[in-house]
Design a protein that fits this description.
It is built from eleven helices and 13 strands. With 323 residues, it is an alpha/beta fold. The protein has a single domain, classed as Divalent-metal-dependent TIM barrel enzymes (TIM Barrel, Alpha-Beta Barrel), CATH 3.20.20.150. The strands form three sheets. An eight-stranded parallel beta barrel has the order 1-2-3-4-7-10-11-13, surrounded by five helices. The chain has a three-stranded antiparallel beta sheet with strand order 5-6-12. Helix 4 packs parallel to helix 6 and helix 10 packs across helix 11. The longest helix is centred in the middle third of the chain and has 22 residues. It is globular, with a radius of gyration of 19 Å. The two termini are 13 Å apart.
Length: 323
């Protein structure tokens, strides 16, 4: 198990030096700012990105997300679906051939939703969500879509892209819908339960089809007093379906009303979670995610991310040394 940094778009010397000095081994870039060649990324640019990270002694282990306009018609069965499928096949092949082993993406054409933020410990500012407020917003794509429409679109895509991933030796995974409520802006949030994740994994069973495991979002789906979260972690790790982990915490297991928390102050027992990954043979990396904004921090959150990453590294050491 390893510690990484992610959630930045540019592999600049400032970010990479920060990551190197804090002792991580893995880098994840989120929607990297690469040239757009008619809805594709080029292998040349992706190779240069990887080499840049490697020049700092770290590995570019994953890319997370392409611009939504690369595949929104795939998600919603729009008129450009077939064109976007061809372009995404090209991009996935190029990521793999550039030597980047993981591509994580989402099934949220309306993106991540939040409502007004909340003040937490010491006046730190955390993002929050209230479903009642969110439901007052207009439709995001002109009409209401059904669950089965979205499932049909997903199944069409998975049956095309998974064999490509197998050919190229790259692993693909989908982020849970954030927040994991029934719908937002008229769009069903398919990845809102572990049952739906199982359904997704059964569309085209393959080692190359897995989960971008955002623990914070997944923890909103479960009873905080029960064992379901930890059982789901164990199940997915045993099945080799966890590509990497967003190791973060939230206030409550209630997708309709929650806020982000510091990594050690939310409802999840983070030690128990980390030990569950370890005990079940997890062998990939963890990154911080959605850190609260603290006093005099940067917009990206250097102080908050340093704190979260130090906590992650300490947790890894704690469970691995105990054995």
């Amino acid at each position: 198990m390893r510690a990484g940094f992610g959630q930045f778009k540019q592999a600049t010397p400032e970010y990479l030096l920060f990551a190197q000095q804090y002792g991580v081994t893995d880098i994840l870039l989120n929607t990297p700012e690469l040239p757009n060649y008619s809805g594709t990324w080029s292998q040349h640019d992706l190779v240069n990105l990887r080499r840049n990270v490697e020049s700092y002694g770290m590995k570019l282990s994953a890319l997370e997300n392409v611009p939504t306009q690369f595949y929104d018609h795939i998600m919603l069965n729009g008129p450009k679906r077939d064109e976007q499928v061809d372009n995404m096949i090209t991009t996935v092949r190029n990521i793999a051939r550039a030597g980047i082993p993981i591509f994580g993406y989402n099934w949220m054409p309306s993106h991540v939703w939040r409502t007004p933020p909340k003040l937490i410990r010491g006046g730190a500012v955390a993002t929050a969500f209230n479903y009642k407020i969110a439901n007052e917003q207009a439709l995001t794509h002109g009409r209401v879509y059904t669950d089965e429409e979205m499932w049909e679109n997903l199944e069409y895509w998975i049956k095309i892209i998974t064999p490509i991933a197998e050919e190229e030796g790259i692993r693909l995974g989908i982020h849970p819908c954030d927040p994991p409520v029934d719908q937002l802006g008229g769009i069903p949030q398919l990845f809102r339960s572990y049952e739906n994740y199982r359904r997704y994994l059964d569309i085209y069973p393959s080692d190359n089809c897995a989960i971008e495991f955002c623990q914070g979002t997944i923890s909103e789906m479960f009873d905080s007093e029960g064992d379901a979260l930890y059982e789901f972690i164990a199940e997915m790790v045993q099945k080799k379906k966890v590509l990497y982990v967003h190791f973060r915490n939230v206030s409550a297991p209630n997708p309709e009303d929650f806020h982000e928390e510091f990594i050690n102050t939310g409802h999840v027992d983070m030690y128990r979670a980390m030990k569950t990954y370890y005990d079940n043979g997890y062998d990939s990396f963890f990154i911080d995610d959605h850190v609260p904004q603290t006093h005099q921090d940067t917009q990206w959150g250097h102080r908050g991310r340093a704190f979260a990453n130090g906590y992650i590294q300490a947790m890894i050491e704690a469970v691995t040394k105990q054995g």
